[in-house]
Specification:
The chain is α+β, with helices and mostly antiparallel strands and 176 residues long. It is built from five helices and eight strands. The longest helix has 16 residues.
């Protein structure tokens, strides 16, 4: 696939979404290990549905996370952008298990936060995380996100309820 180095880090870069990656995204988004911490954990994603979604996402601030060897490893982006209040919501995932727990998510977060705060002039960037996603929570805290609220027992998966944790960062709190 062809990627473009829009936001460059040390080990990864963020590229505009490539619609030709629909098949790999479809594979990832139907893998329970990938989606267990995503809002679409109970969705069925078809190839045609994913192609439509990538078409829509390619027009926003959603990026492919790509290793420097041009291997696609995930997705990160900002949505629900409000340019008047200068706020956005962030989401990310790493696809294949061999790329998780290696710091790629933290690096991608720092890259998109720098872009959001310093290029798009956002003031507040938030995210949602399920309370059973200990690895994600640790990553977000490491980067500087702070919990500001919790919606209790509103996520149902695998026969259990979990909290949805709201975390945020202000531009003045961002250090890279």
């Amino acid at each position: 696939m062809k990627y473009y180095k829009k936001i460059i880090g040390e080990r990864i870069y963020l590229s505009p979404i490539n619609k030709d990656d629909a098949e790999i995204y479809t594979k990832w988004l139907n893998d329970p290990e990938v989606t267990k911490n995503l809002t679409l954990h109970n969705s069925v994603i078809t190839l045609s549905k994913e192609k439509e979604m990538l078409e829509k996402l390619s027009e926003g601030y959603i990026f492919a996370i790509v290793k420097n060897d041009d291997t696609l490893i995930g997705n990160i982006g900002m949505h629900d952008i409000d340019n008047i209040c200068r706020k956005a919501t962030l989401g990310l995932f790493i696809g294949d298990a061999e790329n998780r727990g290696k710091g790629y998510g933290s690096e991608a977060l720092r890259l998109i936060l720098e872009y959001g705060f310093n290029t798009l002039n956002m003031h507040n960037i938030m995210l949602l995380v399920h309370s059973d996603n200990n690895q994600g929570i640790a990553c977000y805290k490491k980067v500087g996100f702070k919990e500001f609220g919790r919606r209790r027992e509103c996520v149902f998966k695998n026969g259990q309820y979990f909290d949805e944790i709201y975390m945020e960062m202000l531009a003045s709190e961002f250090t890279n």
